[in-house]
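Hi again,

Forgot to attach this to my earlier email, sorry! This is the prediction with zinc ion bound. I've pasted everything inline since the attachment limit keeps bouncing my files.
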Amino acid sequence: MDSVELIRVKENVWIHRTSGIVGGEKIPANGLVVVTSKGIALVDTPWTEKQTESLILLLKEKFQKEIRFVIVSHAHEDRISGINIFLKNSIPVYSTSLTAKEAEKNGFTKPHPKLDLDPRMSLGDTGIEVYYPGHGHTKDNIVVWLPGSHILFAGCLIKSLDAKSLGYIKEANLDAWPLTAKNLLERYPDTEIVVPGHGDWGRLDLIRHTIRLLDEQHSK
Ligand SMILES: [Zn+2]
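Structure tokens for the complex follow:
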């Protein structure tokens, strides 16, 4: 339960995968590990603080590099639960101001809301861009784009190909979501790899699959 899995996606980019229990069901979630010449950037924390401690140790051991910062893609448990462990280790955690507000509302420590002003960052040799495409899974969901490797971390906005439903939709906007997903296709047409919040990574067809699921949901 406390284990952390690392899955290689491309040269210096990995998925960190941990499992949480929701409603008695075990649900694996994906975050991103970006290894650069100047240390490691992470997208999202594991589900639990214990898993976060394991992830920090694992990365130190495997890459012999420091974690420089963490980006939180929205203020849900599977994205932000480990925030206090990173802060305790003097690793800054960034989000948009909307996610910081939602985090506080959901009972989490607020990330540093610097991404509104700083959507494009670089760490060593690696560019990292965050983008808010609109309301979908939640009103604060952002994506993270790696222009050097053409990887789009789409988080819970995009479903894996084997997903047969949209998952947790209590905070979703089902009318806006298809347009939000199409924004990603328009902005990042040369994406090679799409990493969803849960399940296997793939290509741009993950976005089209999500739009199909939204169409089905609408005609229900
Ligand atoms: Zn979520």
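The longest strand covers residues 25-36. DSSP finds six helices and eleven strands in the chain.

That should be everything now.

G.
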